[in-house]
Amino acid sequence: MSIRYEVLSDDNILCIRDLCNALMTYQKSKAAIHPEWFDNMSFETRMIPSVRSAKANFVIVAMEGDEVVGYAYSNICPKTTYSGGFATLAPVNFFDFDSVQGDDVGCLSQFYIKEGSRSSGIGTVLFDKSMEWLKSFESIHDLFIFVSNGNDNALKFYLNKGFKISHRILDGFITVLRNI
Ligand SMILES: CC(C)(COP(=O)(O)OP(=O)(O)OC[C@H]1O[C@@H](n2cnc3c(N)ncnc32)[C@H](O)[C@@H]1OP(=O)(O)O)[C@@H](O)C(=O)NCCC(=O)NCCS
């Protein structure tokens, strides 16, 4: 069956709830550093607050018939959003705010393709459309992707798409990737 791609309005994202939760479970399964931090991460605690607080959101899904087989979620946020911590660690800035041009940054925040639908090009289409949206903001120069530890396949995918490793934060829990 052929795949079609649809952009969702912010009010219409409930259909990706299960995939978002599957992404958290997947990331936990890969992580060696603080896998327990994923225990509180879900559609309700990650996706909903993020969509509500971002300046702009872009959620695109891949549909096979009536089934959502993948999604990518990107947003535009003030750079100061990316300051925080987990558990007992002191809050950190996710990146050097002075290294960013302007007040806002773009982020490919969540990305998940169902297991049986991977490695057939769906991720590349969702990635390309997400980048097209992020780059449509003339004031946004800095794009970020945050990859959790152990997710080497995703890391390789992003490096092949031109992103570069910047640094690691939170005891190595997250690798920060940038477009520049
Ligand atoms: C990372 C992820 C989103 C990529 O999506 P995908 O649909 O598998 O991506 P693609 O099929 O476009 O590309 C995957 C690989 O298959 C290759 N590929 C693409 N089309 C292909 C095809 N028709 N036949 C064979 N291989 C193909 C690509 O070259 C790519 O290789 P690379 O990773 O070495 O660059 C997906 O694997 C996924 O959901 N993983 C689990 C969740 C996850 O890690 N999310 C990221 C969190 S940061």
Task: Tell me briefly what this model is.
It contains four helices and nine strands, in the order E-H-H-E-E-E-E-E-H-E-H-E-E. With 180 residues, it is of the alpha+beta class.
Overview of the molecule:
By secondary structure, the chain is an alpha+beta fold. The protein has one domain (3-178): Aminopeptidase, CATH 3.40.630. The chain is built from four helices and nine strands. A seven-stranded mixed β-sheet has the order 1-2-3-6-7-9-8, with helices on both faces. Strands 4-5 form a two-stranded antiparallel ribbon. The N and C termini lie far apart (38 Å). The structure holds coenzyme A. Coenzyme A (COA) binds next to helix 1, strand 6, helix 3 and helix 4. Coenzyme A (COA) is lined by residues 23, 26, 111-113, 118-124, 147, 151, 153-154, 156-157, 160.
Gross CATH architecture: 3-Layer(aba) Sandwich
- Please give the CATH class: Alpha Beta
What small-molecule ligands were found? coenzyme A
Q: In one word, what is the shape? A: globular
First-last Cα distance: 38 Å
Order of helices and strands: EHHEEEEEHEHEE
- CATH level 3 topology: Aminopeptidase
Residue fraction in strands: 25-35%
- What is the count of β-strands? 9
Estimated helix fraction? 25-40%
The count of helical stretches stands at 4
Major sheet strand order: 1-2-3-6-7-9-8
What is the topological layout?
Layout: E1 3-8, H1 17-30, H2 43-53, E2 56-64, E3 67-78, E4 83-84, E5 92-93, E6 104-113, H3 122-134, E7 143-148, H4 152-160, E8 164-169, E9 174-178
The chain binds coenzyme A.
